[in-house]
UniProtKB/TrEMBL annotation:
<keyword id="KW-0418">Kinase</keyword>
<keyword id="KW-0444">Lipid biosynthesis</keyword>
<comment type="function">
    <text>Transfers the gamma-phosphate of ATP to the 4'-position of a tetraacyldisaccharide 1-phosphate intermediate (termed DS-1-P) to form tetraacyldisaccharide 1,4'-bis-phosphate (lipid IVA).</text>
</comment>
<dbReference type="Pfam" id="PF02606">
    <property type="entry name" value="LpxK"/>
</dbReference>
<keyword id="KW-0443">Lipid metabolism</keyword>
<keyword id="KW-0808">Transferase</keyword>
<comment type="pathway">
    <text>Glycolipid biosynthesis; lipid IV(A) biosynthesis; lipid IV(A) from (3R)-3-hydroxytetradecanoyl-[acyl-carrier-protein] and UDP-N-acetyl-alpha-D-glucosamine: step 6/6.</text>
</comment>
<dbReference type="InterPro" id="IPR003758">
    <property type="entry name" value="LpxK"/>
</dbReference>
<feature type="binding site">
    <location>
        <begin position="47"/>
        <end position="54"/>
    </location>
    <ligand>
        <name>ATP</name>
    </ligand>
</feature>
<keyword id="KW-0067">ATP-binding</keyword>
<dbReference type="GO" id="GO:0009029">
    <property type="term" value="F:lipid-A 4'-kinase activity"/>
</dbReference>
<keyword id="KW-0547">Nucleotide-binding</keyword>
<keyword id="KW-0441">Lipid A biosynthesis</keyword>
<comment type="similarity">
    <text>Belongs to the LpxK family.</text>
</comment>
<protein>
    <recommendedName>
        <fullName>Tetraacyldisaccharide 4'-kinase</fullName>
        <ecNumber>2.7.1.130</ecNumber>
    </recommendedName>
</protein>
Amino acid sequence: MPWYAFLLAPFALIFRIVTGIRNFLYDHGFFKSSRAPIPTLVVGNISVGGTGKTPMVEFLIRHLIGDVSLACLSRGYGRQTKGFLKASLDSNASDIGDEPLQIFQKFGGKVPVFVGEDRLAALKKMAVGSPGFQLAVLDDAFQHRRLKGDVYMLLTPFSKPFFQDFIMPVGRLRESRSGAKRADLVVVTKCPEEISSRAKAEIKRGLNRYLDRNVPVLFSKIAYGSVYPVGHTHPFSGAVILLSGLADEWLFVSYCREKFTVLEELAFPDHHDYGNTELEKIASLAKKHSAQSPVLLTTEKDAVKLNSFANQGFLGEIPIFALPVEARFEPEDKQMLLSYIREKFRKK
């Protein structure tokens, strides 16, 4: 907790009261929650960003795509459009948001990706336009109470599980810790490579104070793949200028420092919109380190934005590479998770 937390405490109390009243009204039927015409798997959190939602959504799609007719729905955070849209080959990050575009491109359009602020209305439109959908995976809709989801997967990071966090602006919680009771299962994300049984037990004890009985608690890690070129065929030199727009860039930066020669680091807020100022900075750094043949290494969701500039003739000074990331589970947790989800939706 920051030293100035006492100055923020009154605002946190107001935020807690407002969100608490809202949840009370939904929990007791004063505000209506409705099920969608398509079964829904909601992936979300009760904290602001940095829990690994997109890698988890991609993990679920990757392992469920052969089981059911699948779609993905997101709000499309950071886009410059409004309303309900379907991703297409012509879509860009300004149209649908960086993460929905990343998901659409990663699966080659085999999984329809939609965006819409009103998830319930969007799901109704999806059901009319494509009546064969058997499951919709929702990215970040845990607080969207108008929708009564079928299964809620709550993510919380190992480094700062929600039971150790505080409500905004003192901490990063979007609502009180008690909101976790809506979860059907919990995944502790971004775990270290080695995690002891004792550490797992301690986290489970902390979580279980806020969960309904018998809610499964699983543990996942972040795994990085091989870098790949974005819109070019230049070789990867290993001398990199890092660029990231993440809620928490620590893992990304730490991994890159270990694996590559990091010449410079550029870190921006989550879902940052890049413009001329950033492009000029990148070009300047590329020139500064030209003797080392640098490349720009970034995240996949930042790459989908930067690629649009490259396609328009910008950033010709430096090749762009993306570092893919995915969620991974120990075999027993992976089997438990997929079996749980398949069993739940088999009954729908």
